[in-house]
Design brief:
The complex is a heterodimer. Helices cover 39% and strands 14% of the residues of chain A. By secondary structure, chain A is of the alpha/beta class. Chain A has an 8-stranded mixed beta sheet, sandwiched between helices. A two-stranded antiparallel sheet of chain A has the order 5-6. The model of chain A has no long low-confidence stretch (mean pLDDT 97). By secondary structure, chain B is an alpha/beta fold. Chain B is built from 12 helices and 16 strands. In chain B, helix 1 runs parallel beside helix 6 and helix 9 packs across helix 12. The chains are: A alpha/beta, B alpha/beta. Chains A and B meet through strand 1, helix 3, strand 2, helix 4 and helix 6 of A and strand 3, helix 3, helix 4 and strand 9 of B.
Chain lengths: 314, 394
């Protein structure tokens, strides 16, 4: 487990000076991922989106690792080709070094348009870590709803109107979909718990097989909060169980952070403009629905953990 | 060098060529009528006959995405597809070309839906003709087999560095058995050489950012250079085709003239129809008709100067298109041939016929019928319109 002091001595593989907004959760997340990816050199693929744009506008690059952007929906398929090339070139002696692969994608590029590509790559067993930086909407194109967008959120394609108050559907649970792929390592984390994030990335990269980490990454522009509040907001997401921090190792669940006192979800929602309309009296039922969804998912997660710890019956 | 004679289908020939090329990565997905290429190759992998990492992807989009990832990483990558599969790759075809990756695609020409049809026409390949890929058509399995090796050399040539597709006609070539000259593995290896990319993404000591976002100040220059690479590819297609001829006894060019030099009336065709047309021309020649053909092999790059030179002496030219543009102005080959002839002071009356969509049979009689129309125009100087449809119930 790396200390803050140790992490501070590591090489910054995402250089400063990129074009992310102040307080960008994705930039913080990716910086931390790369701080954890230093044991074996990494090569990355990246889907189209904020991360690609703010790090790469020609002739500048913030990447101090080999990095390749292909298209929007195929970060995983691209990385699978890179990993296949690596295997073939190593087998024939044309390349000799050890390299690890990371595929990056936002929630749009992962939950939605890239889901097939991700599912295929995971099923095929390529040794790669897929990192989804999840900011709950298509932020690069201007805050449109994705299947990661929570119920009630105002986006530009699920606007809080006079008749329809924001997104009408619950979030897709992509992390559980990845668990259902029976891959050796699946996790959820966020950059406010930097040690947890660091441990998970290190563990995933050490795993000989496909791994997936879903990292919650606030977007101050799309969520509507002061940029200095990114980290406090993430802590609230965890303390309200809106974003549980857990991992599934070889099918066994472990909830890494259990809030001593589970806070009501409104404490996470209230500071954000994207949920402001839910606090109007006529929309308060949506708050109840959100709380019920979060409670149900949290209970289900704890039950899965308990089942994992109980182990198989003999 | 003793060449071996073997009976093979077009798909077997393409798969055999892939075995002999022994690429680093093959990422592919099944689709009729190209499926066999993939499954025969998977057999080679299962039997340890190749060093290839075979990625059985979940779609053609991922097939091309994985090939692009592999090529960026520094590998020689090949895929195979047809029809809807090529259409699903469409977005990625542009990226493969724009990133200057010499990926090879064994393409089996098939119609595009809808309605659904699994048989031959050229709609799929023509739809990809603006993507920046080199496109080589084949009259038969032998040409497809030979074309695969040449495609590797053309695509990887430092003046070119563009992806290339070698095409056969669905079922007509892909599933038709023919006697073929097969080249020895060692000779193939020598002819194609080894692939040494200028840079491999895997080189973590020299980390590069590949395919960043480009804005108004720089994007155009990259596309201009890509365009220039395609222009230069023409000479490379010719040089590699000649070298192949010297080495293996079967020379290739941009196109093949058939009784064209002294012809007054001729047709332009691509793919398997050329074989049928040769019989029709022989029969008409036997009756004293001065007819001929230009079999266009290299559609991309489009050799407009050479084509104009070879066709300008004709009285009447009939371009046969196995796809429609639905523009109301004929097929794609017709449009480009007609444009190529535009600046010639003396040029033929150039007509178009669209034929064989969805695998509609084209026989010697059909082609002779088309020639008769062209001869009638040559005699009377009058046409019934530029574009006709051959062998369809109106």
């Amino acid at each position: 487990m790396a200390s803050l002091k140790e992490l501070s001595k590591r090489q910054e593989l995402l250089s400063p000076g990129h074009r992310a907004c102040v307080g960008c959760g994705a930039a913080l997340a990716i910086r931390q991922v790369l701080l954890a990816a230093q044991k074996v050199p990494v090569v990355a693929s990246c889907c189209t989106g904020c991360l690609e744009i703010f790090t790469s506008i020609y002739p500048f690059s913030a990447w101090r690792i080999p990095w390749f952007h292909n298209a929007f929906e195929n970060s995983a398929a691209t990385a699978s080709g890179m990993e296949a090339a690596y295997r073939a070139l190593k087998r024939t002696g044309k390349f000799t070094k050890d390299v690890r692969f990371i595929a990056f994608g936002g929630d749009g590029g992962t939950y939605d348009i890239g889901l097939q590509s991700l599912s295929g790559a995971m099923e095929r067993g390529h040794r790669m870590l897929y990192v989804c930086y999840n900011n709950d909407a298509y932020m690069n194109t201007g805050i449109q709803r994705s299947s990661s967008t929570p119920r009630g959120m105002h986006t530009t394609t699920s606007p809080a109107g006079t008749v329809i108050p924001g997104k009408q559907q619950n979030r897709k649970d992509l992390t559980e979909i990845m668990v259902a792929h029976n891959i050796p390592y699946v996790a959820q984390t966020e950059p406010a718990h930097w040690q947890d994030l660091n441990n998970k990335v290190e563990r995933a990269l050490d795993t000989d097989g496909p791994t997936f980490i879903n990292i919650y990454a606030p977007c101050q522009l799309g969520w509507g909060y002061p940029p200095e509040d990114t980290m406090p907001l993430l802590r609230l997401a965890v303390e309200t169980c809106f974003w549980p921090v857990y991992e599934v190792v070889d099918g066994k669940y472990k909830v890494n952070i259990k809030p001593k006192e589970k806070k009501p979800v409104v404490e996470f929602l209230k500071p954000q403009a994207r949920f402001r309309h839910l606090f109007a009296p006529k929309n308060e039922h949506i708050l109840d629905e959100l709380q019920a969804e979060i409670d149900s998912r949290w209970e289900s997660l704890l039950a899965k953990e308990a089942l994992s710890q109980a182990g198989p019956k003999t | 060098m003793a060449a071996k004679l073997k009976a093979m289908t077009g798909n077997e020939a393409m798969a055999e060529a892939m075995r002999q090329i022994n690429p680093d990565v093959v990422a592919a997905y099944p689709i009729t009528p190209a499926t066999e290429v993939v499954q025969i190759f998977a057999g080679f992998v299962a039997d340890g006959l190749v060093d290839t990492e075979f990625v059985a992807v979940e779609s053609e989009h991922s097939a091309m995405s994985a090939c692009i990832g592999a090529a960026v990483a520094g590998a020689r990558a090949i895929t195979s597809t047809a029809s809807q599969g090529l259409a699903l790759m469409y977005e990625m075809l542009y990226i493969a070309a724009g990133l200057r990756l010499p990926i090879i695609l064994a393409e089996v020409n098939r119609s595009l839906s809808g309605p659904l049809n699994i048989h031959c026409d050229h709609s799929d390949t023509m739809g990809a003709s603006y993507t920046g890929w080199i496109q080589l058509f084949s009259e038969n399995a032998q040409e497809a087999y030979d074309g695969m090796f040449q495609a590797v050399r053309i695509a990887e040539h430092p003046d070119v560095l563009l992806p290339a597709m070698v095409t056969t006609d669905g079922f007509i070539i892909s599933h038709g058995m023919e006697a073929m000259q097969v080249i020895g593995d060692a000779e193939v290896k020598k002819f194609i050489g080894t692939y040494t990319p200028k840079h491999r993404l895997l080189d973590t000591d020299d980390p590069r950012t590949v395919s960043p976002a480009l804005l108004q100040d720089s994007f155009f220059e990259f596309k201009r250079v890509e365009s220039e690479a395609m222009r230069k590819a023409k000479d490379v297609v010719v040089a590699v085709g000649q070298e192949f001829g010297k080495t293996f006894g079967r020379a290739y060019g941009l196109f093949e003239p058939y009784h064209l030099e002294d012809a007054e009336v001729a047709i332009v065709v691509m793919g398997s129809t050329a074989g049928t047309a040769k019989v029709a021309i022989d029969e008409l020649r036997a009756k004293g008709q001065k007819v001929g053909m230009l079999k266009l092999r290299c559609f991309r790059p489009f050799p407009y100067v050479e084509l104009a030179g070879a066709l300008k002496h004709l009285k009447v030219l009939g371009v046969m298109d196995r796809s429609d543009t639905f523009s109301s102005f004929g097929g794609p080959v017709f449009n480009e041939i007609r444009s190529a002839l535009y600046d010639e002071p003396k040029k033929p009356v150039t007509l178009n016929t669209i034929y064989g969509l969805g695998g509609r049979d084209i026989n010697v009689g059909d082609i002779k019928g088309f020639f008769e129309n062209l001869l009638r125009v040559a005699g009377s100087g009058k046409t019934d319109g530029l574009v006709s449809y051959l062998g369809v119930r109106e």
